[in-house]
């Protein structure tokens, strides 16, 4: 059936995007919309005692000023998770539309609705907020201490959640004589997604309902959250998602849709728009959890693992958002990636007065891999074993099955990926050559692997619904709740649909926009799940559609349906290959029949009760200028086994993007906080060091294709995995070059200066 | 607060091959005018302070961030947006075509700016090294592509214009 | 839309001077890459602006009859880099401003704006200091010239008086003749960044290329305003060219620089980078001047 799957089909949205015609949220908003701007707290923690809006209200053009004293007394959750009907598993509801208890510098305390952006900005400056200030805390471990500021009521020591893993007997196992203890603390930063389109939305009321058009990854989830926040029946809310300018997990949260919707209801349902500025995107959307990880490994001199312990402290920031799932995912990867009989893992998710952390490409795994893979090279250094040999010896073996997810490593993915990467980089020769260099410029190579899985089963719901509607000409519309966010899912869906139904690719019309009124239910883009889960419902729905088509073909041709096939848009008699009619002729005849007119559609929901490992690795080569404290990334190679490639060119492009994000994570990106006020210091694209065109080497992406048995198309996760292993590979390359083991990222010149001084590489 | 007296000015300029005239609020940026008065959706807002390049337009042949350029300064200028790059029959330019072929487009938000800058670069008719192209394109941020396929696309269009064979990229698949 | 109270567009330098006198509170706007950004931030919200953006009479590079190199204040960075006079007499300035932001910023940003905002990190500023540039200001009483080091008063404040606008940056012939320089921008990214430290060195060697006749070095972000490291300059003058001299020259810059601790970088780190950059820029300058190292 595979004619399109596996080919480099051009993106279905390429023309519209390359001409600038594709419509994003703001392109769709009427120019007459009222403008909403949010008044933000200028303290990191405390209570709003009073707000004086009188001056703001007199600013010409101001329509209304709303404050935290006006909002419904409803706390709501924002995470882009499927809802749980079991109250015990529901996301934490811990914020209101505007908050009296402010929990980070930049929290939402009031909103101005004005006729234009200048009036709104002037009114914001005229609002006077009086606070009762409380002490604040920015560090997760500090926040856990007794006596630390209490950020949410009833949350002892600010611990949102704790979970653990216990295997064997760590305490006894570590007593084994002759073991080498390797211990490290690894820190990862708060970073932001930096999609180039900021989040924005507009809302209005129509037919007694609230309509929100928004830059989101998760329209159906946003509908539920907006309804919860406003206290409305869920059906009273309609969400429309047009093209979005990137999301990377930030838009896998309800961001300002609830506030925007509420503001519309406060001005009689008029059209209001709320656009986040870049500065607001950095501070008042979501960020990646900064996680501090403590790892102890007891290793035998032969390189086998006797006992291991991990403690991870995840900085949740001010609100729960995705909460504990992020660090828990990283923790659960730990005993799987390098199986060891005796393991103790604990992870804590801790509220602090930083911006709220949510989902971000990799969902805890970039943090876990920075810590875990840095630690592996620290072990190698301690026992004198090569990083490659240690990994070959200890990585998850073929046939490994995870007890919880039932994921199985079917193929020798790790070794195959490492072999390919090694070859591309000429790793082994260079690794030897770069030992024991002297002089100011030194080179190094590094390796890191990553663990990933696909979708969220069995933690959460996994289903996919789609609808196919046949047109008169034999083409069809395809709709699903899973969203195009730039990754290319509309295109790979088209390829799958063409093959599954048996029509040419040009006859598949993907409805890219999701509208909760018309799009089949679906939870949206996250968890690197779309290609995987979409495949199930596409195959299932195509089967139903084909059955209908062939039954109608039977009516029209008098040939038994079982003898007919639909191939490349033609009704074919299987026995002799004769084309009986085109699908277009069939559809036209069916729709306009005077006897039995049929609208030919199919719509099904597929249950996906499986998950799939998706593994790979990164190889990096660096040149370190020691006196200048600078790292130049010379080469970076990522190798992935994401199963069968549906569209190799788009897969490669996905990998490039993830590698790029990870280069920033490894070397330059970090939100910095003023310790005196808790304010973000560098929340703009100049001071936040996102990699530019000049900061990258040629990005090299390679694949190993072991078809995934659980997927109808043999595919599995690729969206997030590319961002997981480059940072530790770069870190390990710096170790190879200089002998200096860096224990945090990003590895900036500031960090290198301190570390090189400590190591005596720089004298003052 | 006293009512602000809005100051308007009439601006005449050349936009994508034709003479146009608009009366605008002097407080408007060129981005505001092109988006609001001409509905040019290719001019995107990504930062509004000249850091991301999404609002790039060509003014008298040079690239500018239209967000930090006052609309009234357009007076007498030749301004080109991505809408003016497309052929009258909807035919993509060679640069646009190369972007499509090289999978250089993902979310599409930075794409118009990159295409315009690439048009400016290639209008010189020169052959550039990778390093030079990276620098010439460095005024645009992209979070999806890692810039890799954008570089390939620009190179492909450059080589085609120069009548040379574009380089082949190894697919490690 | 920018929150500005009024916009006055000057039609000529004389008109700009008149507007400055008529609206003493108004802010001058040249390219806009600083003023508009600050206005959006709220810092200059509600201000009146005098736009000199369209004054072509102060755009471009030329030679005055006495050999002084004249850079019109509205000349954009990209035009400076591409200018043949700049390339011939003070190529390092073209290279320095070619590292400002990205290409679009270099098309809009002007050398006048870069110096008038009084920022220590400006990529043009250290080179202009190192080459003893002279600032030309035109006001109600005519033209006033001032050495650039005196033009900078303190961080963010320069000596522009009532009714004045900056009309040119001048490089005297004595300053550029037989001089060769090198600029190192130390930043966290290779594009779209402001300097953590800017180091501009230039040298004039003896005819036989064996002796340093004059060495000048200036830094950005080594103090509240761009500054010269005169101890290092004095140390190098008249000395034979050698790597050892480069090392001593570099160490001597510590006598004059005074960077601060900030969230962007620590003082000791900046000092370390200043010394290393001074050494490298000195070596490169000597090589450009034909010296053998």
Q: How is this structure best summarized?
A:
The longest helix of chain A has 28 residues, at 530-557.
Structural class of chain A: alpha+beta
Gyration radius from CA atoms of chain C, angstroms: 19 Å
* Shape by Cα distribution of chain A: globular
- Largest sheet descriptor of chain C: 5 strands, antiparallel
How many helix segments of chain C?
Answer: 13
Oligomer: heterotrimer
Indicate how many domains the architecture of chain C comprises: 3
Mean pLDDT of chain A: 97
C-alpha-based Rg of chain A, rounded: 27 Å
Report the top-level CATH class of the largest domain in chain C.
Answer: Alpha Beta
Question: Would you write up a description of this structure?
Answer:
- The complex is a heterotrimer of chains A (764), B (173) and C (293).
- Chain A has 764 residues and is of the alpha+beta class.
- Chain A has 20 helices and 27 strands.
- Chain A has an eight-stranded mixed beta sheet, sandwiched between helices. A five-stranded mixed beta sheet of chain A has the order 7-15-14-13-8.
- The model of chain A has no long low-confidence stretch (mean pLDDT 97).
- With 173 residues, chain B is α+β, with helices and mostly antiparallel strands.
- Chain B folds into two domains: 8-84, Beta-grasp domain (Ubiquitin-like (UB roll), Roll); 94-161, DNA polymerase, domain 1.
- Helices cover 28% and strands 16% of the residues of chain B.
- Chain B has a five-stranded mixed beta sheet, sandwiched between helices.
- In chain B, a hairpin with a 2-residue loop joins strand 3 and strand 4.
- In chain B, helix 2 packs across helix 5 and helix 3 packs parallel to helix 5 (148-161).
- The model of chain B has no long low-confidence stretch (mean pLDDT 95).
- Chain C is an alpha+beta fold and 293 residues long.
- Chain C is built from 13 helices and 14 strands.
- Chain C has helices at 13-22, 35-41, 77-82, 84-89, 91-97, 103-108, 111-116, 125-130, 148-151, 173-176, 230-236, 243-252, 267-288, and strands spanning 4-9, 27-29, 47-51, 61-63, 69-72, 134-139, 142-147, 152-154, 157-158, 165-171, 180-186, 197-205, 212-220, 227-228.
- The longest helix of chain C has 22 residues, at 267-288.
- The termini of chain C are far apart.
- The mean pLDDT of chain C is 97.
- At the A-B interface, helix 1, helix 4, helix 18 and strand 27 of A face helix 2, helix 3, helix 4 and helix 5 of B.
